[in-house]
Specification:
This protein is mostly helical. It has eight helices and no strands. The termini are far apart. The relative contact order is 0.08.
């Protein structure tokens, strides 16, 4: 019974992160950044990878400087890589690589952006057929168009199958 409660109990750290994200979405970017940095200091560099990945991902969104945003997105990817063996963060990879691609675009590094965009598209099979998955796939496609990159010609286009002209 206790084991079952532990599995269904809400994660207090993720709840706290979510509360600060709501503050950020409400328009208080500075306060959100301050509170997220406080949480980061509390977790430390060796906190649970899921928490560090989520926290770094949202901290990136509060940064004013694209280089700082990139640094936080790289921390998020590093934390996800630490937890790769348990599959817990598999569905995060498309978004993580998409964010890194967008960071590199902002920094004028198109080749690095294309590399992460390719990784985002490759990892997109882990996304569900839901609003979140649809949104990430659409964002990948938009960034590909922006970069003038049609993606991997052999990749799934995420659309209906096309008939070859006969």
């Amino acid at each position: 019974m206790v084991e079952r409660q532990e599995r269904t109990a809400p994660d207090a750290v993720l709840t706290r992160i979510g509360q600060v994200v709501m503050l950020h979405h409400a328009g208080d970017r500075e306060e959100a950044r301050r509170r997220l940095l406080d949480l980061w200091a509390e977790l430390g560099e060796h906190g649970e990878p899921l928490h560090r990945c989520t926290l770094a991902h949202y901290l990136a969104d509060t940064q004013d400087d694209p280089s700082d945003e990139l640094a936080w997105d790289l921390r998020a990817l590093s934390a996800a890589d630490e937890a790769e063996g348990d599959g817990q963060l598999r569905g995060f990879y498309p978004s993580l690589h998409l964010n890194l691609a967008a960071d590199y675009v902002k920094l004028g590094r198109a080749e690095a952006a294309r590399s992460h965009l390719h990784r985002a598209r490759g990892a997109a099979a882990a996304l569900g057929d839901d609003g979140y998955g649809d949104g990430v796939r659409a964002a990948i496609s938009r960034l590909e168009l922006r970069l003038g990159d049609d993606g991997d010609p052999g990749a799934d286009s995420w659309g209906p199958p096309r008939q070859r002209p006969e």
